[in-house]
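sry for the spam today, last one i promise. C-alpha cells for design, 418 residues
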C-alpha cells in the first residue's frame, strides 16, 4: 500500500478482535483505545463529583464543556460552534429537525429510495401526523451519475417544502453530488436536510460553503469518536427561514425566556426531541443538556480529533479510498458489479452480487451471518432494488490481505442465490 504507516500494525490501537476481519467500519464505526481512555477519565470525573460535573461543566451557563467540544468540531467541519448541536446519533438528529418543522396537509417531502430506513420511517411518521406527503425519488442501480440531480429537480412540485437527502448513502455507499443537489433545490425554494451520517471523517466537509439548511453526521462512524456522538448543523440563512419559528416539539417553551442565539434561518424553532430545562435557549444550547445522560462521548471529541490530526485527515481519507477500491476490484473478479462509478465512492464500496434467482429479503442477513460464522469476516450486506448488495469499508487498520480473505471466502462458498 502507498502508506507504510497504515495497515494491520495499527489494529492494536483498537479493541477490535485480532482474529477477525473487520470490513464494516461503516455501520457502527470503531473507537480507538486512546479515545475510549479519554472518555473513561471523563466518566471518572463525572462519577467522582456528579453535581460539580453536571452543574458546572455540562449545563448551559457553566464551563460549557459541551460548547468547547462544539468549537473543536466546528473548525474541522467548516463552520462556527453556534451552528453545531450534539445529538446521540443521526437518527435522533434527523427526527429533531423533522419534528421541529411545521408541515401542512398536502405539503411534500422529497427523499431518495437509497435513504436509510430509520430516516425514511421518521419522514413517513411526520407526514402521517401532519397530512404531508412523502415523495420518493428513485435512483436505479448501477447508478448513472449524470442524471441524479435532474431526477431530483424534476420531482419538485409547487408544494415541495423539504428534501431529506443522503450525502453518502447507506446500502449503496454512494457519495451523492450534494452541493449541486442543495443548490438546485434551494433555487426552487425547497429546504434541505442532509443525512450525512457517513460524512464527517470520511470526506472533507465545509458546511457553511455547502449551505444546506441542516446537516447531521455521526462522529462515531468515521471520526473515531465514542458511540453516541453525532452533531446537527443548522445553517445561517435558508429556505427554511420562510417557515415561522416552530410550534411543534415543545416550541412553546421557546417563549419562556431568552431567544435562540441564532434567532433565524434553519435554527429557528429547532429543538431536541425531549422537552427540557433549556428549550428556551433555543438552538444549539437546548441540545446541550436534555436531562441526565452520559455526554462523555461528546466531550471526548477533542481526543478523537487529536487522533485524526496525528494520523492526518487527508492521509486517512486517501488510504481508506484506495484500500476499499482495491478490495472492490477483487470482488469484481468474482462477477460483482459496482453500484456506482469510482468518482462517487469514498471509503466504502457497494457491489451487486449476481444471483441466479430473485434476491430474497433475508439474503443480506444470511450472507453477513455466514461470513461471520464460517470465516470471522464482518461485512455489510442488504437487498436493495431487488439486488443483493455487499458493502465493504476501508480503514487504516486494514490491508489488501483482509479483502483477499473476503474474496477467497466468497469464491469458495458463494453467496445466497449464486
Ligand atoms: C445514511 C445513514 N443515516 C443514518 C444512519 C443512522 O445512524 P445512527 O444509527 O448512528 O443513528 C445511518 C447508519 O448507518 C446511515 O447509514
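last one done:
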Amino acid at each position: 500500500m502507498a502508506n507504510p504507516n497504515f495497515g494491520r500494525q495499527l489494529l492494536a490501537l483498537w479493541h477490535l478482535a485480532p482474529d477477525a476481519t473487520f470490513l464494516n467500519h461503516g455501520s457502527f464505526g470503531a473507537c480507538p483505545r486512546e479515545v475510549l481512555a479519554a472518555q473513561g477519565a471523563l466518566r471518572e470525573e463525572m462519577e467522582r463529583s456528579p453535581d460539580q460535573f453536571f452543574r458546572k461543566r455540562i449545563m448551559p451557563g457553566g464551563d460549557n464543556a459541551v460548547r468547547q467540544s462544539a468549537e473543536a468540531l466546528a473548525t474541522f467541519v467548516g463552520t462556527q460552534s453556534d451552528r453545531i448541536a450534539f445529538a446521540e446519533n443521526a437518527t435522533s438528529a434527523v427526527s429533531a429537525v423533522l419534528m421541529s418543522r411545521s408541515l401542512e396537509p398536502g405539503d411534500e417531502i422529497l427523499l431518495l429510495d437509497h435513504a436509510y430506513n430509520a430516516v425514511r420511517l421518521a419522514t413517513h411518521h411526520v407526514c402521517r401526523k401532519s397530512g404531508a406527503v412523502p415523495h420518493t425519488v428513485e435512483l436505479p442501480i448501477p447508478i448513472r451519475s449524470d442524471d441524479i440531480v435532474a431526477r431530483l429537480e424534476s420531482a419538485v412540485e409547487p408544494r415541495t417544502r423539504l428534501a431529506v437527502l443522503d450525502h453518502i448513502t447507506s446500502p449503496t455507499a454512494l457519495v451523492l453530488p450534494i452541493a449541486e443537489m442543495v443548490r438546485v433545490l434551494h433555487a426552487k425554494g425547497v429546504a434541505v436536510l442532509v443525512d450525512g451520517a457517513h460524512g464527517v471523517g470520511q470526506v472533507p466537509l465545509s458546511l457553511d460553503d455547502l449551505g444546506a439548511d441542516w446537516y447531521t453526521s455521526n462522529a462515531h462512524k468515521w471520526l473515531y469518536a465514542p458511540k453516541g456522538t453525532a452533531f446537527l448543523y443548522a445553517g445561517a440563512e435558508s429556505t427554511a427561514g420562510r417557515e415561522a419559528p416552530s410550534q411543534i416539539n415543545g416550541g412553546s417553551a421557546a417563549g419562556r425566556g431568552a431567544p435562540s442565539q441564532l434567532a433565524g434561518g434553519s435554527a429557528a424553532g429547532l429543538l431536541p426531541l425531549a422537552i427540557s430545562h433549556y428549550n428556551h435557549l433555543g438552538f444549539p444550547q437546548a441540545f446541550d443538556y436534555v436531562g441526565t445522560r452520559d455526554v462523555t462521548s461528546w466531550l471526548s471529541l477533542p481526543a478523537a480529533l487529536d487522533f485524526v490530526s496525528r494520523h492526518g485527515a487527508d492521509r486517512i481519507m486517501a488510504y481508506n479510498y484506495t484500500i476499499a477500491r482495491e478490495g472492490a476490484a477483487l470482488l469484481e473478479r468474482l462477477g460483482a458489479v459496482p453500484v456506482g462509478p469510482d468518482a462517487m465512492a469514498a471509503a466504502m464500496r457497494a457491489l451487486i452480487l449476481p444471483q441466479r434467482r430473485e434476491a430474497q429479503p433475508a439474503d443480506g442477513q444470511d450472507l453477513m451471518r455466514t461470513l461471520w460464522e464460517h470465516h470471522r469476516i464482518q461485512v455489510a450486506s442488504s437487498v436493495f432494488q431487488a439486488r443483493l448488495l455487499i458493502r465493504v469499508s476501508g480503514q487504516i487498520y486494514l490491508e489488501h490481505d483482509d479483502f483477499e480473505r473476503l474474496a477467497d471466502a466468497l469464491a469458495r462458498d458463494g453467496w445466497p442465490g449464486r
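The pocket of pyridoxal-5'-phosphate is lined by residues 27, 89-91, 116, 118-119, 166, 170, 195, 197-198, 218 (CB under 6 Å). ok im logging off now
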